[in-house]
């Protein structure tokens, strides 16, 4: 059963325990969805709905609880993020939809992408992504995937207990600015399978101005034709069971002059403007838009406003208001080829629950638009590939034992690991500790791992365990929240311990850069830093030298007891051991900062700027029994693709 939190209350203040599937009274297994009421469908106006050829299935599974999706689009106009976005995301609003979404897709356009900002965002997560992660984490939302193309960003979040049922997550982007060479215009997408149904989210920023309608159509066709996904599922965007198309589509209102448009808005006669909206007119004439649906435009045009106000453009240009920011969807009809998920009849039904703008946000000349949908699945693939079992509470280190059962269809990897997360974690790499999934057979297909005492968090708190699949790049098994209550360690008494702690604190504040598609979960302290965000740049082999203070401390020690490896790959030789907080380097290294050789790569932003590999050890080897990890076979991803890989 899925956790049910009280309305208007974040999970930190209430942690009810949902039921389990096949678990005993002292164990937690992966949670499952719980039914809830679904809203009545929203009736679209004749001017905004598509032709009668559109298909909508009736649900064949009457007990299906419905899967709620919130879609947000916002052209932020290079502005800084606001302080609060809870009303935009329908969080804690007190209504029936409060904290009701299961998945949230956020599409941003015109995020500041000046060269200095892009370089900073390559090293750290951008401020907008940080804002949404911070706002959604208290409500149990976890970042599933993100992709960026200059100023166009797409973020996809889901409740943590849905992660085991999300598969085949992929991203893509298409530039259409300057003939396809510039990413200020174009589209970014995230596709995935949710409970066995193929979904695709496409965030677009199309050309502006009244006379560019045909160019907008051409750009949309280019995006649809160029974005192809490998694998056995849907290949093209329109091959998916359900497509959400949203963004700053830049369609304008034709024929009417500025004064009439403002009069219609002020007198609440928006229906007079619908028939002259370019997108509404294009639905009846452009074959590429066949099957796309949109709710009624019962909100005022969202462009263009004076920044900081709710007044339409008063500048010398006096641009005419328009519904530039839109959210549409399309369900794949049965007669248009087989379903990518393998089921033909009555795949799913989509009902739009709300569609509105948010006038309270004034940081941009656009108003954000949000829509809520309810998906009724005819069937659900809701069997997790891995089921985790853990005790209700850990009060002693020896209780930190995790048992898990693996389905026979799951392709295991030696690089899989189990992470320990605080309730309210933001993404899959936001763990406190982890242990390699060594697959030690306990009883048949049941396996067991143990967290080391030094890796466990001290004090009292609520935590979640998750099995991270290197193949799927997502948590494919999670537990319910459980408690850890361990005594805090006593403060160090000797000056040596104090000096060591100070040195470790310096290391924690050091920028952490990981190689592309690194198989290491990047062990480290439990402190949360911006450098541990999922949007890290991939600079293989880059080493940040220690501070002069640390070098002096090392030189004063005549015989240092050990040498420490700065954020190196974890030692996987000790079966079942946790690497959650250990930073000791493997034995046999020639120097304290020995790293595998790698080819220096360009940032991709400044052609003349390169980050070279530093080898303080003088080119020594990695020891007789150790080899450097092989680079990913998938190659280097661009900085504009913010993958979740460490």
Automatic annotation (TrEMBL):
Signal peptide: none
Predominant localisation class: cytoplasm
Gene Ontology cellular-component terms listed: cytoplasm; plasma membrane; ruffle
Compositionally skewed regions (Polar residues) per UniProt: 1-11
Substrates-to-products reaction catalysed: 1D-myo-inositol 1,3,4,5-tetrakisphosphate + H2O = 1D-myo-inositol 1,3,4-trisphosphate + phosphate; 1D-myo-inositol 1,4,5-trisphosphate + H2O = 1D-myo-inositol 1,4-bisphosphate + phosphate; a 1,2-diacyl-sn-glycero-3-phospho-(1D-myo-inositol-4,5-bisphosphate) + H2O = a 1,2-diacyl-sn-glycero-3-phospho-(1D-myo-inositol 4-phosphate) + phosphate
One of the Pfam families matching this protein, by short name: SKICH
Superkingdom: Eukaryota
EC number: 3.1.3.36, 3.1.3.56
Gene3D superfamilies: 2.60.40.2840, Endonuclease/exonuclease/phosphatase
Regions of compositional bias (Low complexity) in chain numbering: 39-60, 487-502, 511-524, 583-592
Region listing for Disordered, in residue ranges: 1-60, 486-646
Domain spans labelled Inositol polyphosphate-related phosphatase: 65-381
Protein function: Inositol 5-phosphatase, which converts inositol 1,4,5-trisphosphate to inositol 1,4-bisphosphate. Also converts phosphatidylinositol 4,5-bisphosphate to phosphatidylinositol 4-phosphate and inositol 1,3,4,5-tetrakisphosphate to inositol 1,3,4-trisphosphate in vitro. May be involved in modulation of the function of inositol and phosphatidylinositol polyphosphate-binding proteins that are present at membranes ruffles.
Family from the record: Belongs to the inositol 1,4,5-trisphosphate 5-phosphatase type II family.
This protein's name: Phosphatidylinositol 4,5-bisphosphate 5-phosphatase A
Gene: INPP5J
């Amino acid at each position: 059963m899925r956790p049910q939190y009280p309305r208007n209350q974040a999970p930190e203040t209430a942690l009810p325990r949902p039921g389990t599937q096949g678990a005993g009274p002292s164990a937690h297994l992966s949670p499952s969805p719980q039914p809830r009421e679904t809203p009545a469908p929203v009736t679209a106006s004749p001017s905004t709905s598509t032709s009668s050829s559109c298909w909508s299935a009736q649900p064949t599974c009457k007990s299906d609880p419905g899967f709620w999706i919130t879609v947000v689009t916002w052209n932020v106009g290079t502005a800084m993020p606001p302080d609060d976005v809870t009303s935009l995301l329908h969080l804690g609003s007190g209504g029936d939809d409060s904290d009701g979404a299961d998945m949230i897709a956020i599409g941003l356009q015109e995020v500041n992408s000046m060269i200095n900002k892009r370089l900073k965002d390559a090293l750290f997560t951008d401020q907008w992504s940080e804002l949404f992660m911070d706002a959604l984490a208290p409500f149990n939302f976890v970042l599933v995937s993100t992709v960026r193309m200059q100023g166009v960003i797409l973020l996809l979040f889901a409740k943590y207990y849905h992660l085991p049922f999300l598969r085949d997550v992929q991203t893509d982007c298409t530039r259409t600015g300057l003939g396809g060479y510039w990413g200020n215009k174009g589209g970014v997408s995230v596709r995935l399978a949710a409970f066995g149904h193929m979904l695709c989210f496409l965030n677009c920023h199309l050309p502006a101005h009244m006379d560019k309608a045909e160019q907008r159509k051409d750009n949309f066709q280019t995006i649809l034709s160029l974005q192809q996904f490998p694998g056995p599922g849907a290949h093209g965007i329109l091959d998916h069971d359900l497509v959400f198309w949203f963004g700053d589509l830049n369609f304008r209102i034709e024929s009417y002059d500025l004064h009439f448009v403002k009069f219609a808005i002020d007198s609440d006669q928006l229906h007079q403007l619908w028939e002259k909206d370019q997108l509404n007119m294009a639905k009846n004439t452009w074959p590429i838009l066949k099957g796309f649906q949109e709710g009624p435009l019962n909100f005022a045009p969202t462009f263009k406003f004076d920044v900081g106000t709710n007044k339409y453009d008063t500048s010398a240009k006096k641009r005419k208001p328009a519904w530039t920011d839109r959210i549409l969807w399309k369900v794949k009809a049965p007669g248009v080829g087989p379903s990518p998920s393998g089921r033909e009849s009555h795949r799913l039904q989509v009902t739009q629950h709300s569609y509105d703008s948010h006038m309270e946000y004034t940081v941009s000349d656009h108003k954000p638009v949000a829509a809520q949908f309810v998906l009724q699945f005819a069937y659900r693939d809701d069997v997790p590939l891995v089921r985790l079992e853990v005790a209700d509470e850990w009060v002693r280190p020896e209780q930190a034992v995790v048992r898990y059962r693996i389905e026979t269809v799951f392709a295991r990897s030696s690089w899989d690991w189990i992470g320990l997360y605080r309730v309210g974690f933001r993404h899959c790499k936001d763990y406190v500790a982890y242990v390699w999934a060594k697959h030690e057979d306990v009883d048949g297909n049941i396996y067991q791992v143990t967290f080391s005492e030094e890796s466990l968090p001290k004090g009292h708190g609520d935590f979640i365990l998750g099995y991270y699949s290197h193949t799927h790049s997502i948590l494919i098994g999670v537990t319910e929240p459980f408690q850890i209550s361990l005594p805090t360690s006593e403060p160090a008494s000797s000056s040596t311990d104090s000096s060591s702690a100070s040195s470790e604190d310096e290391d924690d504040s050091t920028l952490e850069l990981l190689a592309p598609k690194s198989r290491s979960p990047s062990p480290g302290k439990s402190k949360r830093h911006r450098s541990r965000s999922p949007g890290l740049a991939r600079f293989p082999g880059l080493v940040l030298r220690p501070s002069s203070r640390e070098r002096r401390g090392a030189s004063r020690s005549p015989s240092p007891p050990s040498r420490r490896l700065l954020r190196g790959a974890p030692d996987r030789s000790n079966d079942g051991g946790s690497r959650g907080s250990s930073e000791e380097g493997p034995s046999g290294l020639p120097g304290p900062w020995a790293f595998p050789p790698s080819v220096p790569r360009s940032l991709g932003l400044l052609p003349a700027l390169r980050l070279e590999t530093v080898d303080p050890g003088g080119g020594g080897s990695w020891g007789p029994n150790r080899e450097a990890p092989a680079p990913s076979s998938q190659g280097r991803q661009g900085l504009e693709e913010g993958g979740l890989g460490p």
